[in-house]
């Protein structure tokens, strides 16, 4: 028993001495800020040293960060990849150095042999949920939809666009009339929405906004108000993330629905890494987090209270 206890102590000491490199995209949204906070918290609770690198939305910064983590000989690398393409070489370098890589929240188009696992939601499904919600709202009525897309080339922008189109396919009364990137930011959402409103008769011709994240929806709400329309009523709004501010907007009747994306991607990632470090256990290649739809019927004020201190 004593020996087993000593072995366990040695194992937990080894686990707590781990150094993990984390290449984060940047701080474009409230959701991203929460993911960063939770990753830092999770690392601290588990006794790891976290080497944090902010890429400021640039893939070349992420590649440089990964190379520096490899040179340092970290025990694992987490990366939230800003875009889906262009990762093969650096992932191969990590593999040659025998450093496990875990993808957080976004996908890459490289072979899954090049990373240990990916933690994230079903991004196509999120878009489908948003589209199905809108179909339920409008029934047979004509609905001209404007779409604020996420960062061009990122997996959530590609997949959330696809999912929404999957949902409305075969429903000729619902049509996407304008679509442009707002880069997942509030400022981008506001300025692109301003141009949509101008192009669509001051907003008269728009029935709904589908935004690939809540921050862009919040920026767009501001633009809609400044145009003299009532967001949530004149223009229905559905978006993705479930950040506290969108619940505030929903409680005020200014947004209608959001699909939740958990910011705690690091928890499942570190669980998988611990099993791998302990005895080489290979996790599934995709560890899926839940996606849940919230509407104004779900007590948005209470949802805001529950999330407001979580680091968003
Ligand atoms: O990759 C996840 C997306 O990136 C979130 O939905 C968005 O808010 C973020 O910036």
From TrEMBL:
InterPro entries on file: Peripla_BP_I (IPR028082), SBP_2_dom (IPR025997), YtfQ_transport (IPR054837)
Keyword terms, alphabetized: Signal
Subcellular location: Cell envelope
Alphabetized GO MF terms: carbohydrate binding
Signal peptide: 1-17
Gene3D superfamilies: 3.40.50.2300
Protein name, as recorded: ABC transporter substrate-binding protein
